[in-house]
Amino acid sequence: MMKKIKPARHLLLTFCAVGVLAAADSVWAANAPIINCAQVSASTEGDADSTANNAVWSNPMLVGDAKEDDEACVALTVQSVYDLGDAPDSYGSLAASGGAQHEIIPGLKLGAAIDDEADGQPDPNAALEGTDDDGVNMPALTDGQALTLSVNVTNTTSKAASLVCWIDYNGDGLFATDGSESGAVAVPAGTNAAALEVVMPQVPATATADTKGSSYARCRLSTDTLTASTPKGLAVDGEVEDYKVTFVAKPKFDLALTKKPKMGQATTVKAGETVTYTIEVLNQGTVEAKGITVTDYIPTGMSLDPTDTNWTANGSTATTTIALLAAGDTTTVDIKLIVSDQAAAGSLTNAAEISAALDAAGAAATDTDSSADNNSANETGLVDDVTDNTGGDEDDHDISTITVAPTVDLELTKTLDKTTARRGDTVKYSLTVTNKGPDHATGVKVADVLPSSLVYVSDNGAGSFDTMTGVWTVDALNNGASKTLEITATVK
Length: 492
Prior knowledge:
The chain is mostly beta strands. It has one helix and 31 strands.
């Protein structure tokens, strides 16, 4: 007996899904549904109330016959989420202000974390996004600084992305769109948690003053087109991070020097006397100074007192060194100079200058308003006791002027024409006064009272001789000149 074999029943189901773009890293349409449909596409026996494989796959919601029960669809709504900024809204943070807005997709971010917001969160501290703003280790910025930002970036999509950063350097509440406040770098596809360098424009020298010490920065990452002109607006993907930044003034190296006669020192002196000056060195900067060399320019007519061991003489200059001077501190050093015996009457101007100095690191320092050197001749428009640069007279250089009183050396000789005489004889006395300098003498007088045993007869008229007082008035006597008075008298 032959055994009957029942025919096998075969069923083929076909599935279709639409609403998902082909590339996993492309932009998802905002809130677009993913529709997944299935239909019986074949059956050996056929179907009594449906037609297999008659779905319109280009629009699965319009399948061949809505009454057929061999097909069914389900929809999944994909909700798009966005990252927005948290700097003050003048920079563009709120969506309503056209703020920076990025749809979040996998594989494209700054730093380690990213979160979504319903809207921007303007904040004076740019901190409401919490720890997800972690792509940039934003340093304190220094006036005049050459700046490169290190940004941690991930782009594991299949498209290249752009990274652009802005810093409001002038504190006007806006990110400049002309490139003066921004830098950019390309982010290749496949970049994974890499530190990329964004070269920024140099921090302006006036940034601290312009921003009053703080401002804001923004970095944007997207496969969309980003340039210096797009610090805000919608981007198809990626992330935006905002930061509050601080500015500090450039460390200032600024030394000044003053010189004056030491307290109690007379400003009018005579040849041969010693003059003591006090030199004051001021650190007006914000950093310490080391190895400060002070040079004293000894003028003609003066010399270093050999007992002053604080200074080392070298021809017409003398030097001393100050080891360390902290920011804001002041120190003094005295110097003793001797006025030459032959110094002419008049003014003597002595100058001193900071001729070298080192910064805290031991490197040759550049003063903010002076040039350390040992050339007094390059100072112009000299002003005494200046501690802020004025014209050509730098404040690390100063002068002090004293007056040398006139000095004369008067020599007097007296001779007699005979050594013996009788009563009634006539004798002649000769008095010669000589000025050996170095200056001209004025108001010269010589007293020569004749003894009572002599009777004045006459004189030669050199000057004026008062027979009653015996005073010979010479008056002016130039350096090197002599005058002689001859007095004739009778012996009683």
